[in-house]
TrEMBL record:
<comment type="similarity">
    <text>Belongs to the ustYa family.</text>
</comment>
<feature type="region of interest" description="Disordered">
    <location>
        <begin position="1"/>
        <end position="44"/>
    </location>
</feature>
<keyword id="KW-1133">Transmembrane helix</keyword>
<keyword id="KW-0472">Membrane</keyword>
<protein>
    <recommendedName>
        <fullName>Tat pathway signal sequence</fullName>
    </recommendedName>
</protein>
<feature type="transmembrane region" description="Helical">
    <location>
        <begin position="57"/>
        <end position="80"/>
    </location>
</feature>
<dbReference type="GO" id="GO:0043386">
    <property type="term" value="P:mycotoxin biosynthetic process"/>
</dbReference>
<dbReference type="InterPro" id="IPR021765">
    <property type="entry name" value="UstYa-like"/>
</dbReference>
<keyword id="KW-0812">Transmembrane</keyword>
<dbReference type="Pfam" id="PF11807">
    <property type="entry name" value="UstYa"/>
</dbReference>
């Protein structure tokens, strides 16, 4: 019988018998190694190492972003809380630097303007004819006494501390105490000056009888006050609205100027000024220290005050102020 005529099972036995036993053992060992899962965990492939490294970096990145977000959130909450804790927060946002905000709380209050054309009853003292009582009331509001501010305040105000005037150390305010004033009181001083101008004969009639020209300084002072008040009104730019009503004595609708305004509590500011300002006579006695550089004022300024250089033609007026 030929090999082709032998049964299939017999042919397989002949085939296996022809393989060397050592080679069979090697093939069996190789096959076993190829399916052993323990080899994959002992030595990860290059792809697995890249994947693990990337996962670690993503974990660290996510942790960093989370921590940063938490810090920013806490910081934002802290700033918001700080703003709520500061009753002057809104006022600071609509003002230049002022140390007054650090000393007193200035409430915002709603006030209705007493702005009728006809004199109300009782007549407010500020609308009454000149008298010692009226002058005293206006003088209290026009309190232009100086106050003490710090070197830091001077810098925050955009001024140079090397030329800003200090209080003498003999006043007991320390070596870095500077002279300041609150602007609203200067504005009221200017308004009072215009009030006096409206009653010119009472206040100035003896000095300048009818037909006598006023002094150059007087006219300049009035002009200064009018322009200063104009600039302040334009700066605050109040946009509150007043309405109109129909009156039996007018053909056109008449304006109702008695509107509501959101006001800073002026009484709180005035009280602080009265408690902390320095007498103007003491201020007036201060003289320039020898180591301070003085500003050279214009000839016009000196002319108004009757103060001239010994040589007014020396060209020192260039770039001057006043």
């Amino acid at each position: 019988m030929s090999a082709r005529d032998k049964p299939c099972s017999e042919m397989q036995s002949i085939k296996y018998e022809s393989v060397d036993s050592s080679e069979a053992d090697a093939l069996e060992h190789e096959a076993t190694d190829s399916i052993d899962p323990s080899n994959e965990t002992e030595e990860p492939s290059q792809y697995n190492r890249i994947f693990v490294t990337r996962q670690k970096w993503l974990l660290w990145l996510n942790s960093f972003i989370f921590c940063l977000s938490a810090v920013l959130l806490l910081l934002n909450v802290s700033l918001i809380q700080k703003g709520h804790d500061d009753p002057n927060d809104l006022l600071r946002k609509t003002s230049e630097h002022s140390p007054i905000f650090d000393h007193i709380n200035i409430p915002l209050i709603t006030k209705r303007m007493n702005a009728t054309l006809v004199e109300p009853d009782p007549l407010p003292i500020y609308r009454r004819p000149p008298s010692p009582e009226v002058d005293a009331a206006w003088n209290r509001l026009a309190n232009i006494k100086p106050i003490v501010i710090s070197r830091s305040d001077v810098i925050k105000l955009g001024r140079d501390p090397s030329i800003a005037a200090k209080w003498p150390e003999s006043f007991g305010f320390g070596p870095e105490a500077y002279i300041g004033r609150i602007d609203v009181f200067h504005q009221i001083h200017c308004l009072d000056w215009l009030r006096r101008e409206a009653h010119f004969d009472h206040y100035y009639g003896r000095k300048w009888p009818p037909g006598t020209p006023t002094s150059d300084m007087h006219r300049t002072h009035v002009s200064h006050c009018i322009y200063l008040l104009l600039q302040n009104l334009m700066c605050s730019a109040n946009v509150d609205i007043y309405t109109h009503y129909w009156a039996d004595a007018q053909l056109n609708a008449f304006p109702d100027f008695s509107v509501n305004h959101k006001c800073r509590d002026f009484d709180a500011i005035l009280k602080w000024q009265e408690d902390n300002s320095i007498d103007v006579d003491l201020f007036g006695a201060i003289r320039k220290p020898p180591d301070y550089e003085e500003r050279i004022m214009s000839h016009r300024f000196k002319e108004l005050f009757g103060w001239f250089d010994s040589n007014p033609d020396d060209g020192s007026d260039s770039g001057q102020i006043g």
